[in-house]
Fold this sequence. Notes:
Blueprint: H1 17-47, E1 53-67, E2 70-83, E3 89-101, E4 104-111, E5 114-116, E6 120-126, E7 129-134, H2 137-149, E8 151-166, E9 169-170, E10 174-186, E11 196-201
Antiparallel strand pairs: 1-2, 1-11, 2-6, 2-7, 3-4, 3-5, 3-8, 8-9, 8-10, 10-11
Amino acid sequence: MASRPGPIGGQPISPQRRPMLVRCIVIGIVLTVVLVGFVVLVVWLAVRPQRLVYTVEDGKVHGFDLYKNHLNASFDFILKSYNPNHKISLYYDSIEVSVAYDDKIIAFDYVDPFHQPRHNVTRLEVKPMARSVPLMGSVSKNLRIEKSSGQIELAVLVKARIRFKVGIWKSSHHTLKVYCKPVGVQLDPSRKFETTYCDVNS
């Protein structure tokens, strides 16, 4: 009587050994996760990262003209970026600044890349421009009403690609989003601008 062929590639794993193998794999995965979490915790405790702080310190508008629902204007804003971290510096590789009214982007500008040291305050002067920007009838109407009151409430948005630096280590790129609202721009230069604090997400 012919014998039955044996398994290819050696002896199969017995049913008794399978639970032990699965248990070893699970334990290995758990230990790896715990080790990575421990390293992250140690790094976090050593670095103590803090959220960046952004404010709009000043805002002006020039050449404001709203004709046939098309807006022309140039804005001047001073943004203050505060890095409160004592061990983390930042590289801003690209920065876009937009101005919105009633959720409609009406002007934008770009800022040159720069490095922000640890525990540093950097002021950015941005000059977004609106050039014949078409507005819907309702948006144009609301803007005219605000103009007649002497103040326009805007939103200033910052979107940047940043990298963090701790010692000699640099992170990969992250997207920083800053949202400042309401930014009250005075059309009467004798009226004082009020600082606006921004929401920061990175």
